[in-house]
Amino acid sequence: MRSASFGIGDVVKHKYFPFRGIIFDVDPEFANTDEWYEAIPEDIRPAKEQPYYHLLADNGQEAYVAYVSQQNLLTDDEGGEPMHPAFAELFERGHDGRYHLKGAQAH
């Protein structure tokens, strides 16, 4: 098992699909349903034995929650806050310039 390359509050983008988001939770390895996993075309299906990230994501047209493998994420250097409507409810920018979960939501 690999260690997580990204953390909660990191803004990332998908390697292949046009969306970006902010990480709000991390699973050390795949923790979704088999049905969800099998729906991914086999030729691009990522390994289960790697961290998976829960994102507040947007593609410029709609906002949603995404579940993405580590191998399919890159750091988003675009800048700017994520456009997901739940972003402001869950995150705030710290003195260090990074996004952090607001105190009530931290666990």
Automatic annotation (TrEMBL):
Q: Where is the Hemimethylated DNA-binding domain?
A: 3-102
Source organism, top-level taxon: Bacteria
One Pfam family this chain carries?
A: YccV-like
Q: Which InterPro entries match?
A: Clp_protease_adapter_ClpF, Hemimethylated_DNA-bd_dom, Hemimethylated_DNA-bd_sf
Q: Which GO terms describe its molecular function?
A: DNA binding
- Decide whether keyword DNA-binding is in the record: yes
Q: Does the keyword DNA-binding apply?
A: yes
Q: Which UniProt keywords apply?
A: DNA-binding
- NCBIfam families in the record: yccV (TIGR02097)
Fetch the PANTHER family from UniProt: HEMIMETHYLATED DNA-BINDING DOMAIN-CONTAINING PROTEIN (PTHR48439:SF1)
The entry's protein name is Heat shock protein HspQ
Native source organism of the sequence? Pacificimonas flava
